[in-house]
Design brief:
With 325 residues, the chain is of the alpha/beta class. It contains nine helices and twelve strands. An eight-stranded mixed β-sheet has the order 6-7-8-3-9-10-12-11, with helices on both faces. It has a four-stranded antiparallel β-sheet with strand order 2-1-4-5. A hairpin with a 2-residue loop joins strand 11 and strand 12. The N and C termini lie far apart (43 Å). Bound molecules: iron/sulfur cluster (SF4).
């Protein structure tokens, strides 16, 4: 499968104020991530809140410039495509359908807005396309002239999906698209996204803290921890035989969406570390039940293992061993 989007050594840092009389600190939200997103796949990205997945999503969408590294789309650096060029090919679906829809616009006007901004079609052609896409996401055409406040949460998320698809993008970046919805509605939206992916041949990046959801929809999964990818594998492999101790902990637990709450029910003890003051060596070492002597001083590299990759000294025994001596 060829790569649609490639991220190389992507970093993003922010200067964070510590208060009036304290110096500013640097937060490395994304720290040296390299990823290929293959045409037609659903790449799941999982990790606790605060691990950098939403920052990564905004960079993949071209909404946030990286501090370092580069992103290419079909071989072209996205900086040369610009916001407009990117929006034609890469579209987002965000978590909160309440805040992402303009309450003063009708549903038809919200969905047609990207076509209008990009100068695509006549008014009549845009209306026709809007009604077609509403139909595709399972909304009756009579909803076209209603306002967001008249719709349920699930219906609003269908509108957000319609708005993302109206431009016929190749890649859709879904950032926690079901998290704000009632449990009963979540599976409907998930199934809709899967149906649309198959029918339209879309490629998805699907970001979630919910492992069950990711297992259901993703073909490959990247696990993030403190701004890094620590494991990347085919979904079936990752859930059947995880290699990284953090992935194993995630699979043994239920993630909470709250940063600082850490991983409950795993017996790891310590909460999520302070991203402004990350541990030296392997960033997971203070919580890792399998840590080696070198883990506190030497950061593991991401080791490629046939189709998968893992960043752990256990998978790369020679690397970092000298750091303990
Ligand atoms: Fe645990 Fe060491 Fe592997 Fe980090 S490198 S996950 S501390 S064993």
């Amino acid at each position: 499968m060829t790569a649609l989007l490639e991220a190389r050594d992507l970093t993003r840092s922010f200067e964070v104020s510590q208060g009036m009389f304290k110096s500013r600190r640097t937060l490395h939200a994304v720290n040296g991530i390299s990823l290929d997103i293959r045409k037609g796949e659903v790449l799941g990205i999982v990790g606790e809140s605060g691990c950098g997945k939403s920052t990564l999503a905004r960079m993949l969408l071209g909404l946030l410039p990286p501090t370092g590294g580069a992103i290419t789309l079909d071989g072209t650096d996205i900086r040369s495509l610009g916001r407009i060029g990117m929006a034609r090919r890469v579209q987002p679906v965000f978590q909160d359908p309440y805040s992402s829809l303009n309450p003063r616009r009708t549903i038809a006007s919200i969905v047609a807005l990207p076509l209008e901004v990009h100068g695509i079609g006549t008014v009549a052609e845009r209306r026709k396309r809007t009604l077609e896409i509403l139909d595709k996401v399972g909304l009756p055409q009579r909803f076209a002239d209603r306002y967001p406040r008249e719709l349920s949460g699930g219906q609003r998320q269908r509108v957000a999906i319609a708005r993302a698809l109206v431009m016929k993008p190749e890649l859709v970046v879904c950032d926690e698209p079901t998290s704000a919805l009632d449990v009963s509605v979540q599976s409907q939206i998930l199934n809709l996204l899967m149906d649309l992916q198959r029918e339209l041949g879309l490629t998805y990046v699907f970001i979630s803290h919910n492992l069950a959801v990711v297992e259901h929809i993703a073909t490959r999964v990247a696990v993030m921890y403190l701004g890094r990818v620590v494991e990347l594998a085919e979904t079936e492999t990752l859930f059947r035989a995880p290699r990284h101790p953090y992935t194993k902990a995630l699979l043994a637990s239920v993630l909470t969406p709250e940063p600082g709450q850490g991983i409950p029910e795993t017996g790891l003890g310590l909460a999520f570390p302070d991203p402004l003051n990350p541990p030296p060596g392997c960033p997971f070492h203070p919580r890792c039940p399998a840590r080696l002597p070198q883990c506190g001083t030497a950061e593991p590299r991401l080791v490629r293992l046939e189709r998968d990759a893992v960043a752990c000294h256990l998978a790369d025994p020679g690397h970092g061993a000298s750091a303990q001596s």
